[in-house]
Amino acid sequence: MNNYGFVKVAAASPKVKVADCVFNTTEILKIVSEAEDLGVQAILFPEMSLSSYTAADLFFQRLLLSECENSLSKICRYTEDYNIIIIVGMPLEISNRLYNIGVVLHQGKIQGIVPKTFLPNYNEFYDKRWFASSRELKQTEISLCGQRVPIGIDLIFETPDFNFAIEMCEDLWTPIPPSSLHSIHGADIIFNLSASPDNVGKNDYRKSLIIQQSARCISGYIYASAGNGESTTDLVFSGSCMIVENGEIISESERFSFDNQLISSEIDVEKLRNDRVKNKSYTISEYKHLDDVSYRYISINQEFKKIKLSRSINPTPFVPSPASMNDRCSEVFSIQIGALAKRLLHTGITKMVVGVSGGLDSTLALLVMAKACDKLNISRKNIYGITMPGFGTTDRTYKNAVSLMESLGVSTVEISIKDAVMQHFKDIGQDENLHDITYENSQARERTQILMDYANKINALVIGTGDMSELALGWCTYNGDHMSMYAVNTGIPKTLVKKLVQWISDTQVDTQSEDILHDIIDTPVSPELLPAKDGKTSQITEDTVGPYILHDFFLYYMLRFGFEPKKIFYLAQVAFKDKYDKSEILKWLKTFYWRFFSQQFKRSCIPDGPKVGSINLSPRGDWRMPSDASSALWLKQIEGLD
Question: What per-residue confidence (pLDDT) applies to 83?
């Protein structure tokens, strides 16, 4: 796809004058010209945008109907050389029936007409007084503005970059909106021409409908409603416009403005399509009662135009937004606690063992264990936190580990691994001065042996501490920290681990524990397997494997949406434009793919652990990949990037 799958769309609510087609058309064309200059590929206007929605019985006036057609002809002539697709609303008489229609235009040609199906006729609405439902329409083609044009609710418009369909206002508010069928039949984006009056609380409800429908349809949803200039005899229109992508609002207009409203942004159509491919409920074959539903596909040969991405790209997609931080972190923490509590209940074991290093991962695991004990009314003394100083342990992490265990009221055990590892070096003939991978992994495996044997001794479960980012990179020692009896952090990436510990320190613990947690958060991430220098760690993980904030970004877009390296590279440049340059992003992208493919064998046999978010690397929870899969295709594409 062009533009890495992004399609630039717009929604507009122009100033109108009731029944003044000349004025309304002038305002529409002003906005169209502005949108064309912005590189917009498709723009949506409100319901009855040529005539105004509140014309009431003036819709029965022949002059108004003919003037709407003249206005449509003017728009066709004016935009013959434009690349933009335009969607406007108007009344149209067909076979002695008046229809409320949406018209799709491109380069001076009417591509198709979609009539409104559901006509509100309750409370303040009188649509059936003037209009007929699409169900009454018998024609599949009509003549309009000297052109032969397809008409119906069975139209899906295909362009080289995206497919779209139309629904109108009340259609969205029904039990089964037409957009549900449109999406199943291939529409990536739904455009809704609306004239929804406002009253107290309605905007929130309307917004929730749009958000939910876009998520349910796995689609982009573009919404434009009538606003400034509509009659306020009995109703008020706010000019609400929204651009929504799969349940997320990415652009929204100012309401109740006296100015023309134009919003634009980019919909990631590739992302939507990848989600649909994975969702096996998302196919017409699952809905046998719809076998007789058929669609006509209208081809629009829109020329490719390079667009500049205007929407922001979140550099930490796993981390909740500030507005949702409390709720999301509470939910994640509760999932971990509930999962561990269930495992304890199932096994009938009431004791747990965990290695506490003074780092983020073991800290989070320990906090989960403490809260699981509280949930089950088990004494926290049943948690045996074992600190195992080695050659690289620093005073800072050691003191934090011991202090945290004391503040949480768990049983504290200290077992040095130095003598045991030195003996092991002698047994296998390892030079203790050779600080290679054997030197490091021997320490990790000795620690795991201690945890396992100590758990056997007291009839306990060993709780794993490793996180999802480490599993993605294979940054764990096989049969060392790779192994446990239940792993509570395997569904949580490193960027979220840090935020989660921060949230816990702010909301879940006393002042003493809070101070300790803050220092742990500020401690550089390190396995501390190489000898310390001047009391400080000589081994910073991110110096070796790269920044976790980048790797989590790569992981999210590779697994969640199946994006190619070139698109991830493009998105990363947008997301990290003020933090990392292109060469650094490219360097760590290559590292990520090489490590991800080469280390699958570790993920193929990881312990049980809860899936927390939309991504998980357990072969039972989400990710199934051969351990010997080749990375050649991905690395070859990366080599061609610059």
Answer: 95
| β-pair type (155-158, 163-168) | antiparallel
User: b or e along 209-223 (b: 16 or more beta carbons within 10 Å of the residue's beta carbon)?
Assistant: bbbebbeebbbbbbb
CA distances from residue 448 to 444, 461, 557 in whole angstroms, order as listed: 6, 12, 33
The pLDDT tens digits of the residues spanning 136-147 come to 999 999 999 999
pLDDT of res. 192: 97
Catalytic annotation on 457? Answer: no
Say which residues have a Cβ less than 8 Å from residue 322's Cβ, sequence separation at least 6. Answer: none
User: Would you tell me which CATH number, out of the four given (3.30.590.10, 3.40.50.620, 3.30.70.890, 3.20.20.70), belongs to the domain 325-639?
Assistant: 3.40.50.620
- pLDDT reading at 362 higher than 90: yes
CB atoms within 10 A of CB 632: 9
Closest C-alpha to 54, from 228, 252, 242: 228
For residue 521, give both structure tokens. Answer: 């958060």
Going by pLDDT thresholds of 50, 70 and 90, the confidence category of residue 122 is confident
Task: Classify 489 as helix, strand or coil.
Answer: coil
Establish whether 116 is a catalytic residue: yes
Choose the catalytic residue: 15, 74, 116, 494.
Answer: 116
What residue spans define the domains of the chain? 2-299, 325-639
- Average pLDDT, rounded, for the chain: 93
Tokens of 55: 């014309």
Cα 395 to chain centroid distance, Å, stands at 41
Check if the beta carbon of residue 385 is closer than 8 Å to that of residue 357. Answer: no
Tokens, residue 24: 């309304």
Whether 484 and 444 have beta carbons less than 8 Å apart is answered as no
The residue that leads in pLDDT, 101 or 201, is 101
- Domain 2-299 class, CATH top level: alpha beta
Can 145 be counted among the known catalytic residues? no
pLDDT digits (tens, 9 = 90+) for 413-456: 999 999 999 999 999 999 999 999 999 999 999 999 999 999 99
User: In which residue are the tokens 């799969």 written?
Assistant: 246
The pLDDT of residue 602: 96
pLDDT higher than 90, residue 507: yes
Strand partners, 567: none
* Phi–psi pair at 422, nearest 5 degrees: -60, -40
- Record the pTM: 0.91
Predicted local distance difference test score (pLDDT) of residue 235: 81
Estimate the crossing angle of helix 548-561 against helix 494-507, to 10 degrees: 110
